[in-house]
Known about the structure:
single chain; about 160 residues; mainly alpha; 8 helices; about 0% strand
Amino acid sequence: MLIEFKDYLTFENIYFWSNIGILPFWLMIILIPNSRLTQILVNSVIIPLILSSAYVFVFYQAILMDESFFEIFKIYFNLENLYTVFATESFLLVFWLHFLAINIFVGSWVSRDGIKYNMPRISLSIILIIIFFTGPLGIILHWIIRIFYARKLGFHD
Length: 157
């Protein structure tokens, strides 16, 4: 049974299920941020642990395929190296899982922060949707709007 499960865990299936699997949690953050279920599932370490497990599995599979993970450090030197690394399916999937984990973490934080400062649900929902698609743009928008509700600008909240 474990062998069948391992055979099912192709890079394509991990990519598909991580994308489908993250959507309910984003919907929970947007639609029911104060519910106990959201607090347990999204505002805890559960989702990052699941994504991290997939990350480690993909990393392990790449090692078994003799892909050199030292090549990944070349991405910091120029764009051509970044393009080359992303042409490798395992590296691309590792980066995508990384993106999903960081994005859900940021979305959860923004949601809790918006509730803390009584930001309107509609503006917070729009910000969260923007974070889902383009993380940094949503963070900037959140900070700009947050200033008016927090009445302060703190860099260590």
